[in-house]
Give the backbone structure.
Amino acid sequence: MTEAVRDSLDRCVKCTICESFCPFSKVTPLFPGPKYVGPQAERYRNAGPPVDASVDYCSGCGICTQVCPQGVKIAEINSQARARMWDERGVPLRNQLIARPSVIGKLGTPVAPLANWALRNPLLREVAHRVVGIHRHAPMPRFAGRTFQRWARRRPKGSAAKTVVYFHGCGTNYYEPAAGEMLVAVLEHNGFNVVIPPQDCCGLPLQSNGNFPAARGYVGRLVDNLAPYAREGLPIIANSTSCGLMLKREAREILGVEDEDLDTVSKQMYDVCEFLLLLHEKGELKTDFRPLALEVPYHAPCQQRGHGIGKPALDLLALVPELRVIELNVDCCGIAGTYGIKKEKYDISMAVGAQLFREIREAKAEVAACDSETCRWQIEHGSGVHAVHPIELLYRAYGLK
Amino acid sequence: MSYDVIVVGAGLAGLTAALRLAEQDKRVLVIAKGVGATHLAPSVIDVLGYAGDRRVENPRAALADLNSSHPYAHLSAERVAESLDWLIKRVPELGYQGRLDENFLLTTAVGVPKPSALVPETMADGDLRRGGKFVFVGLRGLKDFHASYLAANLARADLPVPVSARVIELDPPPGRSGDPGSLGFARRFEERQFRYWIMQALAGRLEPDEKVGFPAVLGLEQSREVWRELEGRLGRRVFEVPLLPPSAPGIRLYNALTGALRRAGARIVIGDRVTSAPSQGGRVAGINAESASRPVTYRASSYVLATGGFASGGLDLDSHGAVRETVFGLSVAGMPDAGTPMFSPRYFDFQPISGAGIAVDADMKPVDERGHVVFENLYAAGAILAGAVPWREHSGNGISLATGYAAGAAILEKSPTMSRTEARD
């Protein structure tokens, strides 16, 4: 356990505020709550007894750490304890598999029609459920059949005066290249030259699945790709909130990576909405928005809130005429990356998300907005309402299509 | 983004100031390093419960006797009364009852009478001043409520009128959730089958004129429905007895206030510590908050400091006995004289350091040792204020509500709200 995380637990005064906010202990007795599993149990782990398996039912959403008034790194304690548990027991094959999105992406993309068919074939899903442990009903993204990287490489070189770097992550690369293209268009519309370096997974899924050594390897390679730009002082823009957060903080705080290049990249990393709002504050964001007569429920994902930047999407979308955004006040959609697709956790994940799904359905909107890709897939699965990244709404309001 | 007002702290004082301003169309940001004490306190508003060792019956009258350094001394009784009325209207879903001219007398979970000016509707019928026959329902498995202990202590308590108390212990079936605490039970009370079980178990065991006391776990989101259904089906007055943290009634208050804030368009950021606040020309120029990778600066015309006292980190005492205010570096008043002890050896005795805090003027603006306003656009409210000993006086939530309200009012008086379009011109 890293020292900063371990030290923070002495600040726990057992006030139980984290317990009252945990979306997971609320719906399942399998997770006894962040305080019990975190600061309380950790005191006994120092001497070396094996970690209680209940920590695996923590999703890592991080809400406990956000609400803790004493600064205890509760979610981080739990993530590190989970890694120790899986280190002692060996990470199961299923977790090794689903935690490598770029490997899955590379395998699935060339055979996208077949892969998409397989992912939606009830018989094969039943087999995957029983043999691999991926829940038969879990939401699965569709392979786009092309990669964002390929599009990026074929793009003509920009000549704008200002340059930003785009860290798109695996979701954009293999499943939602169109989302990446929209982001690039929005940035170019605002006068930026967008550099898209080659890049692989950030290691977050491996971190959540308890394989820290492999996760550190991914972080190291990604940082090598991004650091040259960060050293030049260029902003690095991410549209995946969880992958952005990985480089901003979690690689350092949870994986314990101590690396000067990582620190440089961290300081240059911006969530795309954070970046655009800062631009707006300087009076440099184009506001030539067309009216968008829509009512859109907006869910800020847990990992977005982990950035500690408020909810910039709300302020950005407020700039669009006739667009009415409803801020949903639900803590979590339940998916937590790969948590909700596991056979033994799917029902928990759906129970956590139930309130969010209900509120989105009740809003009777044609589209919902959410910053994180896995959360959008979960929202569509749970509510039946199409969900987009806030940038897609800006793209439409700019009239870029 | 720039705001009209930034409130640092999300306890009762901060949320009150923020809502007072947001409902008048101010652009408000609430920023806090975590959730405040609303989740821990029972949600009753104690304005003044004790004056010395004397239990207060009429807080309005007793306010006049406080010394001039007490937070209430900066406010007129009218303003305190106004803040109570405001809360009653602002969170109608909690059905607050009471006024400044008298104190309810509720029982705590250990059977100690507790004076309080404003109580949620789910607790009002527990008023011991009205006397009568009380029956307390124990729920086996709920580790923080022991009905027999409560009833035994109540029998020995100093009460204005005779009260009888007896106990019914229930042994409810185990629930889905593994949480044996008050939260787990509060969630179970929102399940129809669980309430049905409770009502079946009590059927035929209540006397006609008894008032039925439950631990304060009658729901979180739907407490009004739960409470009304129990009253209706049992055909008796039903009331809640406040418990140890986590406090279901406190969570309801937090949800009601933050919900109203969101509807009024305010922004709430929980989880970011404010680390420093640059100033310029006698004014606060902004606040710097931690984010995941670098400090973020937020700016506003006015700022409210509502970070609480030592317990929540608004004030910090180091091992050398040096005390500091952690956001703006304000000077701390009310410290014991140099060379005299800060603490008494016995925990529940008066602690000399307990009155430490920020001194303010009549506008709730922090002042220095000479009584001069420190920053023209900074206001302070709540537990960080100097001069009160809330846990002895039973004045904590009252001070937070009244001073939060007053800070909001002072900002509104200084810059009355224009409509949004006018403000932009």
Summary: Residues 396-414 of chain B form the longest helix (19 residues). Chain B touches chain A at residues 1-2, 29, 32-36, 39-40, 176-179, 181, 183, 187, 245-246, 251, 258-259, 262, 267, 269-273, 289-294, 296, 312-313 (CB under 8 Å). Confidence is low (pLDDT under 50) at residues 419-425 of chain B. The radius of gyration of chain B is 22 Å.
